[in-house]
Each structure stands twice: as structure tokens, then as C-alpha cells.
Specification:
Protein name: Class I SAM-dependent methyltransferase
Radius of gyration: 18 Å
Organism: Streptomyces vastus
GO biological process, one term: methylation
Number of helices: 11
Order of helices and strands: HEHEHEHEEHEHHHEHHHE
Largest sheet: 8 strands, mixed
CATH architecture of one domain: 3-Layer(aba) Sandwich
Helix content: 40-55%
Distance between the termini: 37 Å
InterPro entries: Methyltransf_25, SAM-dependent_MTases_sf
Oligomer: single chain
Shape: globular
GO molecular function: methyltransferase activity
CATH superfamily of one domain: Vaccinia Virus protein VP39
CATH topology of one domain: Rossmann fold
Strand content: 15-25%
């Protein structure tokens, strides 16, 4: 699949998911976004850019820390996500944010105009993420910082899903996906440089960053039930899989996932899954 077609698919998927994204009784992107903000420590008065801001899980906590003298810009390729983030900012009474529909791979923004660039589970979706990182370095002022999150990628697991799901999702389902979206192909094309910390550090330095820090921490994903998780999975990256499955196979997978997830519950308690997340921070090298 070429880059334009891939971006169109991602845009359509997240436009369709925007109204229920990170809702439906599941917590994951919000706590991960808050933790990224904690690790990057936005300061009062700083200028922050959030790449692929979604509904604002990272953007809005950052805006709260930079205060009224700071400026936070959130960009996303999906117009519906920008609308949702705008509504959420208004609901929270946050007025130091600006939101624009923009391709995060090629942000049309002035050089040196930000102190901090953020991207939570977004930069990794870019077909040419390593080239984009160099552009972000150019957007940062002297001493500017970057922070983003990534799955802890391995060659034998599905991207963007907790490791336990590798056993729950039959590999036979991959025949319904474009070959370029198979886990090993996605890994080879997009994510191989993210797997080993040494390779990731080298990529960051090549892009114009220094003081690279890579920390893997679990995020506790919680869902009120297995059914809630499966419904929520239609609102994030896994939506790309559901869209390609024939109705009968989608129903079988749905039942299988709900049963396995509910088996993790303690009585009527929530489903709790520890999801490994990689936090990457660095400073512009100048």
C-alpha cells in the first residue's frame, strides 16, 4: 500500500472513531498521555506542539502546565478528532490551545517555534517517521525537547496490542489484511528501528537530537468488561483489522476476545491488563 493510501485509511478510521475514541469504559490513552506529560515536564510559558493529538489526552494536560502565558498547538490528520479535541478543551475550560487539521509527517509550521514536541502513540503511525523526527528537531528552539510513546515492538507480536493478544488473534485472520499490514511487514517497513534501544537512540541522534532517554513502563489498561474492551477496540488502531474481517469471522473473534478478557476479571471487577509502553525523550542537539 502506498503512503497516500495508507494515510487515507488511517484518516478514515479515526474520523469514524472520533466520537467514541478513548471512551466506552476503557482507560488507556488518557493515563498514557498524562504519564508522557509527567516525563517531559512542560513549564509555564512554553510553546508545545502535540503531533496526532486525538481528543487531547496529552495536549490538554500539557496546556494546563504551561499556563496562560504558554501556547499549545494540537494537530491531527483526522478532522473529526480535531473537532472532538476542541469540544473537550472547551468543556474543561482550557483556552490556551489551538487545534489544526494537519499531516503530522509534514507539519507546515515555522522553524524554531516550539519548546516541546509531543506525540503519544502517533508518531509511530507515520510511514516515514524517522524523516519526520528530523523535521521536528527543526521546529524546536535551542534547548527544545521531544517526547513520544511507542509500543514495545517485537517481531512476533501484533503492533499496538498488549502481548497477550498474540495468542488470542489467529494469524489466519491476516489473510484479510493488505500484506503490508501484516505484523512482520509492518515491523520491517515502519518499526524495526524502534525495537532495539540502541537502534532507536541512533535514529534519534541522526535526526538531530541528543540526551536520548528510553524508558519502558507498563500502563495499566482497564476495561469494565471484555465486551467494553472489544467495543473500544473499534475506536483505535485495531479498527483497521475489524474493517477487513468478514462478518462471520468478526463475530467469532469478538466472542473469543470477550471470553478471554472476562476470564481475567475478579468477579464483577474490571479487566486489568499491564501494557508495556516505551517513553522516548530527547533534546534538540544545538
Amino acid at each position: 500500500m502506498d503512503t497516500a493510501a495508507f494515510k487515507t485509511k488511517v484518516t478514515d478510521a479515526f474520523n469514524g472513531a472520533a466520537a467514541t475514541y478513548d471512551r466506552l469504559g476503557v482507560e488507556f490513552f488518557t493515563p498514557m498521555g498524562r504519564r508522557l506529560v509527567e516525563r517531559t515536564s512542560p513549564r509555564p510559558g512554553e510553546r508545545v506542539l502535540d503531533i496526532g493529538c486525538g481528543r487531547g489526552a496529552t495536549l490538554l494536560p500539557a496546556a494546563g502546565l504551561i499556563g496562560p502565558t504558554g501556547r499549545a498547538l494540537g494537530i491531527d490528520i483526522a478532522p473529526a478528532m480535531i473537532d472532538e479535541a476542541r469540544h473537550e478543551a472547551a468543556r474543561q475550560g482550557i483556552d490556551n490551545v489551538e487545534l489544526q487539521v494537519m499531516d503530522g509527517e509534514h507539519p507546515d509550521l515555522p522553524a524554531g517555534s516550539f519548546d516541546l514536541v509531543l506525540g503519544s502513540y502517533s508518531i509511530i503511525f507515520l510511514p516515514q517517521a524517522r524523516a519526520a523526527l528530523a523535521r521536528y528537531a527543526g521546529l524546536l528552539a535551542d534547548g527544545g525537547r521531544i517526547g513520544f510513546t511507542s509500543p514495545v515492538f517485537t517481531r512476533d507480536t501484533f503492533p499496538f496490542l498488549p502481548p497477550m493478544f498474540t495468542e488470542l488473534i489467529p494469524l489466519s485472520l491476516l489473510r484479510h489484511l493488505p500484506e503490508s499490514w501484516h505484523p512482520e511487514q509492518l515491523h520491517r517497513q515502519l518499526h524495526s528501528w524502534l525495537e532495539r534501544p540502541a537502534d532507536l537512540t541512533a535514529a534519534m541522534e541522526q535526526a538531530g537530537f541528543t540526551d536520548v532517554e528510553i524508558v519502558d513502563e507498563p500502563v495499566s489498561m482497564s476495561a469494565v468488561s471484555g465486551e467494553a474492551w472489544v467495543d473500544w477496540s473499534h475506536t483505535q488502531g485495531m479498527r483497521l483489522l475489524w474493517q477487513h474481517l468478514p462478518e462471520d469471522e468478526a463475530a467469532t473473534l469478538r466472542s473469543r476476545l470477550i471470553g478471554a478478557l472476562d476470564a481475567l476479571r475478579d468477579g464483577d471487577g474490571p479487566v486489568l491488563i499491564e501494557v508495556p509502553v516505551r517513553y522516548v525523550t530527547a533534546t534538540a542537539a544545538r
